[in-house]
């Protein structure tokens, strides 16, 4: 009858159709690549080609951690960074990683390369603990220097904050508890007032009158 035909037509209309993957979904699957270290699927722009070897399926996160770990090592291992694949000695070039790795990692990598290119006898560090920038010794005769990073004065010969008015030879003979800013100021005052230092107790004394002989207390 007519009612039965209408119900049948309505039921046929409600039947689900079979789902088909869109061309966009196929493109997304093809764009994903598997990182050989973390085994996660990554987009193509997250995969970094390392040198001329065939081990190119590494994500930028894993390569970043690999580079950071190598930089933390000492010697040539901190500068000659190779592909993380076992037995592969292909070097990873810094320039090929600039656009993919974090700036902090790139900066440390450049610092390691710079440090390795300068002889150990030529490099020293800013004596101020909150700076500690690596510097290059230009000449052994230079004493008073300014750190180009923190712009504070220091003595390049003694490796300490600048000791104005005190010769390096005198300063280096001082004990560790005599090298403070206040101690240096006292030494400058003693020098200008021609005070003498007792060889026994190390206190400064001033002779105002009487014989030149002074007995230590």
Automatic annotation (TrEMBL):
Name the residue ranges with Polar residues bias: 1-21
- Give the main EC class: transferase
Q: Work out whether the entry's keyword set contains Repeat.
A: yes
Supply the alphabetized keyword list.
Metal-binding, Repeat, Transferase, Ubl conjugation pathway, Zinc, Zinc-finger
Query: Which transformation does this protein catalyse, written as a reaction?
Result: [E2 ubiquitin-conjugating enzyme]-S-ubiquitinyl-L-cysteine + [acceptor protein]-L-lysine = [E2 ubiquitin-conjugating enzyme]-L-cysteine + [acceptor protein]-N(6)-ubiquitinyl-L-lysine
Known EC number(s)? 2.3.2.31
Domain RING-type as annotated: residue spans: 31-217, 35-84
Residue span of region Disordered: 1-26
Listed GO MF terms: ubiquitin protein ligase activity; zinc ion binding
The UniProt entry's GO biological process terms, in alphabetical order, are:
protein ubiquitination
Q: Which PROSITE patterns match?
A: TRIAD (PS51873), ZF_RING_2 (PS50089)
In terms of superkingdom, the source organism counts as Eukaryota
Q: Which InterPro entries match?
A: E3_UB_ligase_RBR (IPR031127), IBR_dom (IPR002867), TRIAD_supradom (IPR044066), Znf_RING (IPR001841), Znf_RING/FYVE/PHD (IPR013083)
Q: Which pathway does the database say it acts in?
A: Protein modification; protein ubiquitination
Its needed co-factors are: Zn(2+)
What task does this protein carry out?
Might act as an E3 ubiquitin-protein ligase, or as part of E3 complex, which accepts ubiquitin from specific E2 ubiquitin-conjugating enzymes and then transfers it to substrates.
Return the similarity comment: Belongs to the RBR family. Ariadne subfamily.
Q: What is this protein called?
A: RBR-type E3 ubiquitin transferase
**What is the protein's species of origin?**
Linum tenue
């Amino acid at each position: 009858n007519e009612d039965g035909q209408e119900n049948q037509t309505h039921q046929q209309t409600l039947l689900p159709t079979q789902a088909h993957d869109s061309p966009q979904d196929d493109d997304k699957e093809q764009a994903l690549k598997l990182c050989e270290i973390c085994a996660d699927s990554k987009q193509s722009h997250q995969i970094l080609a390392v040198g001329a070897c065939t081990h190119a399926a590494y994500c930028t996160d894993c390569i970043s951690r690999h580079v950071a770990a190598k930089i933390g090592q000492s010697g040539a291992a901190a500068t000659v960074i190779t592909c993380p694949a076992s037995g592969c000695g292909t070097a990873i070039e810094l320039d090929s990683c600039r656009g993919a790795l974090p700036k902090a990692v790139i900066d440390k990598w450049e610092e390691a390369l710079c440090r390795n290119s300068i002889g150990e006898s030529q490099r020293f560090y800013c004596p101020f603990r909150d700076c500690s920038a690596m510097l290059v010794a230009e000449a052994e005769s230079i004493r008073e220097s300014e750190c180009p990073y923190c712009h504070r004065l220091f003595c390049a010969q003694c490796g300490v904050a600048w000791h104005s008015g005190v010769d390096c030879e005198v300063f280096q003979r001082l004990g560790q508890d005599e090298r403070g800013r206040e101690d240096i100021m006292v030494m400058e005052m003693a020098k200008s007032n021609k005070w003498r230092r007792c060889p026994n107790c190390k206190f400064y004394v001033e002779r105002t009158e009487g014989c030149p002989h002074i007995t230590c207390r």
